[in-house]
Design brief:
The chain is 91% helix and 0% strand. By secondary structure, it is mainly α. The model has no long low-confidence stretch (mean pLDDT 87).
């Protein structure tokens, strides 16, 4: 009976040490996760706050009515390129019409 009591005590001691070891490991993991997440959270909030401040500043600078005409004005380079493309389109349409007329004239004549 004394031996059986000693066995239970050894078993209980072993289980207690195992549980203690598992809890220490668990808390080490939790501590590491918290330690890793704190800088990430700080950076996240700093970046989001900075993004919001910059966006608000940009929007407030963009929506000044006295700048609308200037901001919406087409640049001279874009305007000349658009006109050149429009002229080229007209030339290509005329060339297509001529080709169609020649083709139709050749087949019907």
């Amino acid at each position: 009976s004394i031996k059986a009591g000693a066995d239970v005590t050894d078993k209980g001691r072993f289980e207690t040490e195992l549980i203690k070891s598992l809890m220490v490991s668990y808390f080490d993991i939790v501590r590491k996760n918290v330690k890793d997440s704190v800088p990430k959270s700080i950076i996240h909030f700093l970046v989001n706050q900075s993004k919001d401040l910059i966006q608000n500043e940009l929007v407030s600078n963009l929506y000044k009515e006295d700048l609308f005409d200037e901001l919406l004005e087409e640049s001279p380079q874009i305007s000349s390129r658009r006109k050149a493309c429009k002229a080229m389109l007209e030339i290509l349409r005329k060339a297509n019409d001529i080709i169609n007329d020649v083709r139709d004239h050749t087949f019907t004549g």
